[in-house]
Design the sequence.
């Protein structure tokens, strides 16, 4: 894997035992390989998101960890939205890394030992409008060709256990071979 070098860090970590959008910030989270964030409603080897459980409860959980770039909150603030880390359901809020441009399979080393493999884009849902009316539409925009662009972060699976906290460094390792653009998961 090829490493990406830039000042990349975690600005907040969040978890919530019950389903719902906003997750409170905590001092640290523990990532469990093959499961996700210990104590979070979405932790599990099989899908935990309620809409996906209704479709097929046995499918693998490709959405164990949700990561969002803090730069999105800066952009949303310019549009009049007050969004802080954890407000849109992410477990890890980052700064200095363009999460949306990473290819599928990129591995993020978070802090000391924890590692997350990026599986795809978060497909935002209407629950975001419960935080602020119009927020879902603000994180779904159109590119120059009219294609839908999802801005609400990326999803991943835990490949190595570890504690993660605000201030930890992030190291991105790109997959070898031909890159696959992120698709919604």
Sequence:
């Amino acid at each position: 894997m090829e490493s990406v070098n830039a000042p990349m860090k975690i600005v907040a970590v969040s978890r919530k035992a019950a389903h719902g959008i906003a997750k409170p910030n905590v001092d640290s989270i523990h990532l469990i390989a093959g499961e996700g964030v210990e104590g979070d409603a979405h932790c599990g080897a099989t899908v935990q998101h309620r809409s996906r459980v209704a479709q097929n409860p046995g499918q693998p959980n490709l959405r164990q960890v949700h990561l969002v770039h803090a730069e999105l909150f800066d952009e949303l603030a310019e549009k009049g939205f007050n969004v802080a880390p954890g407000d849109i359901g992410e477990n890890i809020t980052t700064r200095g890394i363009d999460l949306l441009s990473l290819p599928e399979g990129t591995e993020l080393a978070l802090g000391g030992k924890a590692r997350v493999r990026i599986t795809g884009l978060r497909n935002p849902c209407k629950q975001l409008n419960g935080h602020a009316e119009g927020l879902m539409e603000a994180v779904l925009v159109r590119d120059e060709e009219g294609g839908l662009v999802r801005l609400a972060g990326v999803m991943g699976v835990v490949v190595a256990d570890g504690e993660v906290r605000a201030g930890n460094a992030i190291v991105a390792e790109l997959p070898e071979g031909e890159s696959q653009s992120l698709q919604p998961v």
Q: What stands out?
A: The longest strand covers residues 114-121. The helical segments are 50-55, 70-78, 135-138.
